[in-house]
Amino acid sequence: WVETKPMEIKRVYNFPEVGPKDMYLLHHEELESLGLNIPGIKRIRFFMTFGQSYLTHLKCLENVGMTSIEPIEFEGKKIVPLQFLKAVLPDPASLGPRTKGKTNIGCIFHGKKDGKDKTYYLYNVCDHQECYKEVGSQAVSYTTGVPAMIGAMLIMNGTWKGPGVKNIEEFDPDPFMDALNKWGLPWKESFDPELVD
Q: Which ranges of 71-187 does DSSP label H, i.e. alpha helix?
């Protein structure tokens, strides 16, 4: 593990069908399970994009203490600033009608297969407005909900089974990947992607 300051490591990546975006190296909980459950993995990282406007607003709110999770006294009551901020911000579900653009969510793999160096990019592109037309929500919610639904379906129909609690990467991926194509998150492949240093 390497510790960094928040948003310290930034890269610009040219995402297929989306274009160049600023992305930042972050911790994400799946790194822990993937690192344990993928044999031979030597390096794993997670990047997420954020627009400059979002980061500027977040920094301003942080500077005035609104992102704090420490309770403060306000008019004789204890409040948590971050919880108060959440209460006054718009409900994320209400943003769907005005969210435009596309997401690009994927994984770049680099390693050896059959003794040869291989690079592979597996990704999905999802349009916010198309998602809103279909389910009344933007693509971030859609790309979170559909995989969870598929996982539940595969457990319920007995495709995925076994004792105990498991992470998704411990199951056969083929039925899941097939279902992504069927249930609105078709994936694409690139065999010569731009790499991230």
A: 81-88, 128-135, 139-156, 173-182
